Amino acid sequence: xxxLRRAGTAALALATVAAIAIVGTPGTATATTRLSWTACGPxxxxxxxxxxxxxxxxxxPTITLPVIRHLASHPExxxxxxxxxxxxxxxxxxxxAATRGAALDAAxxxxxxxxxxxxxxxxxxxxxxxxxxxxxxxxxxxNLPIPTTGPDQRRYLAATTEFARxxxxxxxxxxxHISTADTAxxxxxxxxxxxxxxLTYLGESxxxxxxxxxxxxxxxxxxxxxxxxxxxPTAATHGTAAAIAAGLTGTxxxxxxxxxxxxxAGPELCPLAGxxxxxxxxxxxxxxxxxxxxxxxxxxxxxxxxxxxxxxxLKFAILGHPSLWPEAAAALEMAIQGDGSAIKDAANFDxxxxxxxxxxxxxxxxxxDSPARxxxxxxxxxxxxxxxxxxxxxxxxxxxxGAACTSWPTRxxxxxxxxxxxxxxxxxxxxxxxxxxxxxxxxxxxxxxLLGNAxxxxxxxxxxxxVADPSTCVTRATGDYLVRLVTPRPGTVCPxxxxxxxxxxxxPAS
Length: 510
Description:
Residues 1-21 form the signal peptide. It is built from 18 helices and twelve strands. It has helices at residues 2-9, 93-107, 134-141, 150-171, 180-193, 206-217, 233-236, 240-248, 251-265, 278-289, 307-318, 325-336, 341-347, 353-369, 379-389, 394-402, 441-450, 472-484, and strands at 38-41, 44-52, 62-70, 80-85, 112-117, 199-204, 222-228, 294-296, 303-305, 428-435, 454-462, 493-495.
């Protein structure tokens, strides 16, 4: 079950950053006015861009962000640059352009330089780091699983309060200048630096919030914008609890679909099938876990599996990636048979130093955009409400991603809070999976109504983002839009190439 554990480490779509910079204090150099590209791989060029720490004071302190571009394979027909962001918040746009640049180049007929950058708070000398030392980070988070009991919850809240204090102490003025509005201004600066009159952009997950903020701040500067896995912009500005709640409304439905597609696939393809109805067996095992931990003798290290531990990898890693569903089904069948080792190993990501080093920027960005409106002592009640929205995701996300914001030391004065109804000359293309655990289709429909000019393309598929459940139809429609500014007809639905549990899942349909 090593794949599940690796996927857990990439929970919340936190990609492995290619190069982790040492955090420093903001510099005083002037903002970059011309890019100096250097070859850094096949068809890849890299640069550093200096921007003001505070765009309201352009001659004040500065920060430096890494940028990369995958060169267009047909430069003679080049339209411009396609800026990309993979979400997180805080995942590496540099890594996205480096690893997916060739595929995006093919999807857009080789007519764009694919440009990615690591956003402020997550890259360059502007990366949030709350410890600065591997041993200190590991020691701090050791033995702090998602809490279940009252004493565990109080201990966890005390830890997140101390975590927030350390973040404020170590990162100083940076925390007040990492809102999505600050990043949108960085993106507009990058657009000017590459020489594009208008922006062409592909944003995924949190990257869709960057896109929505940009489109509403600078509607006349948008050439084309494809947003995949929509974040709810109004919820994001109404507090941490509201933002989390908006993202949870599709989680349990996706879990139910995971069990249903397993049952339909049958025992030859899904280990949970063939022993009676699938959903009742899995739900009975989870119900038993609420009161009785499960032995995990073969986990690393051996131990027992608790209820919230079992939920964390389901929410953070498995439901969003249908390619992992067969392996997840095998782990759940082992648990039904009395051995929670595989799930325990998958859950260990949330106590690892690597996970917390990656999650710190996302935590800081989320708290900067949407500070919690609740006191720390009130947070257990908030989490109980979140579990009523989603029994699978409420506790893992509520505790793992929301608790620290109750004690966050900084509020961002530059965050954008609306309106969200700007009209762009070209319609914005919205992409939404029908069964989405993190960015519900209902949110995509809401954003379509909010924006003055948008078209929603529904992907009749599963998981977080269209890339999780490949669809040639979605790829072609997105490429056609970015190149020729042609949107699908309203109401268009794209099928997936294959269904989950198909042995050839991820391969093109025959």
